[in-house]
Design goal:
This protein has 284 residues and is α+β, with helices and mostly antiparallel strands. 53% of the residues lie in helices and 18% in strands. The protein has helices spanning 2-53, 58-83, 89-105, 107-122, 191-204, 238-255, 273-280; strands spanning 130-133, 136-143, 147-151, 157-161, 171-172, 176-185, 214-220, 225-234. The strands form two sheets. A five-stranded antiparallel beta sheet has the order 4-3-2-1-5.
Amino acid sequence: MKEEIDQFKAAYELIVTFFVNYSFQLIGALIILSIGLLVSNRVAQLVSRTCEKHGLDVTLSHFLSSCTKIVIIIAVAVICLGKIGISVTPFIAAIGALSLGAGLAMQGLLSNYGAGLNIIITRPFIVGDTITVQGVTGIVKEVRLAHTILNDEDDVIIMIPNRHIVGEIIHNSNAYKVVESTIAVAYSSDVQQVKEIIQATLCELGIDKNRPPQVGIDEFGDSGIHFGMRYWLATDKYHQLRFCVNDRLYTALQAGGIAIPFPQREIRVLDNSLNDSLEKQPHL
């Protein structure tokens, strides 16, 4: 019982001594920490507004503001620890050792972060662009350090690790995607009339006005003339508009008296009477 009382007295004296010696330092550290947190938030907001004012990408703006806030908080934490008499040198050494071990254990994750930083800095695409990478097409919704989030017309969320994007071939068509298709008409059709009907139909629909549709003879097929079409549609309504274009083209060509051919084969039956008489003769 006496030993427990002595231990309690020693702990009590240690706590009292600590607060007597470091009470003002502790209060000062708390004040500095509070001011530092407030300043970090204000500076991060200022950086974000400055980036938006100069037209920087949203992802890059958020990244710069977050890094600024983290740097200020770390600096304030170091000052607070020094204020209450705690040396930060051992912590830095421990953090370095832990970082080395964590880096070896999480090479894939760190490569994603490195690739994400590369994407944010070089900006091969931005939020709102339509990209095709690794056989996947979608609208860029968000670029994070670890992965990039795409969204397609079916409202499917696609998350691609950034290390699978950097170093790969990226097709960036901004907010539109090209459609390449063909339609066949009979050889008896008026070529100029067919071309005018196709162009008029495409102009009536939601086609990208900045890039006019391209229409022309693609090839001469066995059953008809194949007209090639290249036009750009908004990615968020790609299939809907493409189906609408096909319906309108079919209706317009029918209304214009343009025949759409179908595959035909001409079969000739030869006279085999001579072969039959030869087969009926007895063999020698």
